[in-house]
């Protein structure tokens, strides 16, 4: 009688709970379709929340009423909330359609979403640059789209087409164009995400997927900028193993390196260089970028064989170096060759080209060059960034101009 009495006084929504639980609960992202005119939407999405790591410009700074008041000279590499992000969904076995811009903000997920429980997620990274004439440039966005599709196949996920990916990036960049730093002050970092957003309990592909694109203005990834960084070679922890997911840009690859990276930084190093997990003597990559060594006129980099991410900056540097007369080899590179190199540098979307000043291996520290940044590293950095920023003619057909 007591239980019936209690039940009688329960709110009607709670009394419906047993019937609701007979059906799978899927909590979509909490997005609402935007139906306002674009100008009204821009006003509604204006984001005044700045990262604590970004100082506001002084009152004397020259900014327009439409531009965020950021001290562009002191941009770091951390999230700065912007105005818009892009969202597109599809169910497992279907195709992505009907993407749209949304106000940048938090998202809502089921506790049993595939990305939260089984790590079914991928991300990409690319940049937009502003030219002195006001035009906006993207660098090889179709390569990011192709890499995302390759990773999605490995992770059992549907993916946007190359055209959908590039269009989503273009829309997001143009909607946030006021956040692109002035020429020479940085870039707009673009982060596309593909995630299993549908609810799933047993180990299986998620029933629903979400493709997101958000952006943030950034400065240098390493605080040193183009100054040499210092690496430590990790001998116990491995970033990837043969047959795993080291060759795709899945989220789990990066969480796995955090412990070693944190320990390295606490000891004064910039980052960690990982070795292969079988022989423990061949170079693989740094936590978030590829590695190159220079000996004479030969530039060598570890070959892509399933455990190393096929970096788009890596691929571009190889082509640029070949065009400049260097011999480039993609092969197994031993740690002994690294220690005997004339120069060493890293490549990646975030770092572009970052010269290595020293490498520490088994307690032995080896330095490279006497003038800080090596000649070849500086030459390749200049050639690539000049292309990306539209300072030199794009004979490779890599740059996409937005306006």
TrEMBL record:
It catalyses: L-valine + 2-oxoglutarate = 3-methyl-2-oxobutanoate + L-glutamate; L-isoleucine + 2-oxoglutarate = (S)-3-methyl-2-oxopentanoate + L-glutamate; L-leucine + 2-oxoglutarate = 4-methyl-2-oxopentanoate + L-glutamate. One of its GO terms (molecular function) is branched-chain-amino-acid transaminase activity. GO terms for cellular component: chloroplast. The modification N6-(pyridoxal phosphate)lysine is found at residue 249. Its cofactor is pyridoxal 5'-phosphate. Transmembrane segments: none annotated. One of its GO terms (biological process) is branched-chain amino acid biosynthetic process. InterPro entries: Aminotrans_IV, Aminotrans_IV_CS, Aminotransferase-like, B_amino_transII, BCAT-like_C, BCAT-like_N, BCAT_family. Gene3D superfamilies: 3.30.470.10, D-amino Acid Aminotransferase, subunit A, domain 2 (3.20.10.10). Its EC number is 2.6.1.42. It holds the Pfam family Aminotran_4. Belongs to the class-IV pyridoxal-phosphate-dependent aminotransferase family. This is Branched-chain-amino-acid aminotransferase. It comes from Lithospermum erythrorhizon.
């Amino acid at each position: 009688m007591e239980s019936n009495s209690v039940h009688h006084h329960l709110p009607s929504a709670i009394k419906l709970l047993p019937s609701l639980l007979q059906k799978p609960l899927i909590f979509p992202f909490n997005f609402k379709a935007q139906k306002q005119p674009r100008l009204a939407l821009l006003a509604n999405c204006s984001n005044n929340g700045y990262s604590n790591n970004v100082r506001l410009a002084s009152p004397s700074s020259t900014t327009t009423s439409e531009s965020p008041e950021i001290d562009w000279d002191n941009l770091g590499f951390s999230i700065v909330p912007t105005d818009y992000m892009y969202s597109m969904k599809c169910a497992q076995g279907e195709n992505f359609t009907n993407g749209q811009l949304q106000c940048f903000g938090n998202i809502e997920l089921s506790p049993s979403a595939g990305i939260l429980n089984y790590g079914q997620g991928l991300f990409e990274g690319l940049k937009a640059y502003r030219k002195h004439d006001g035009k906006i440039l993207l660098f090889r966005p179709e390569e990011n789209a192709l890499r995302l599709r390759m990773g999605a196949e490995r992770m059992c996920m549907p993916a946007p087409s190359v055209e959908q990916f590039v269009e989503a990036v273009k829309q997001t960049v143009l909607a946030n164009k006021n956040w692109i730093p002035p020429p020479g002050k940085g870039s707009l970092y673009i982060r596309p995400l593909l995630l299993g957003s549908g609810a799933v309990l047993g180990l299986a592909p998620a029933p629903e997927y979400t493709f997101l694109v958000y952006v943030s203005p950034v400065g240098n990834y390493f605080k040193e900028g183009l100054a040499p960084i210092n690496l430590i070679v990790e001998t116990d922890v491995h970033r990837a193993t043969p047959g795993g997911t080291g060759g795709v840009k899945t989220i789990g690859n990066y969480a796995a390196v955090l412990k070693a990276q944190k320990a390295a930084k606490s000891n004064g190093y910039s980052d960690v260089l990982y070795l292969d997990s079988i022989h423990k003597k061949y170079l693989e990559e740094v936590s978030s970028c590829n590695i190159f060594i220079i000996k004479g006129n030969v530039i060598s980099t570890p070959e892509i064989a399933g455990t190393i991410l096929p970096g788009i900056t890596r691929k571009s540097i190889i082509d640029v170096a070949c065009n400049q007369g260097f011999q480039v080899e993609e092969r197994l590179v031993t740690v002994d060759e690294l220690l005997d190199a004339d120069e060493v540098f890293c490549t990646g979307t975030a770092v572009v080209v970052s010269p290595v000043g020293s490498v520490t291996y088994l307690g032995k520290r080896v330095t490279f060059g006497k003038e800080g940044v090596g000649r070849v590293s500086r030459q390749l950095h200049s050639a690539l960034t000049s292309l990306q920023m539209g300072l030199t003619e794009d004979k490779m057909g890599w740059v996409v101009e937005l306006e």
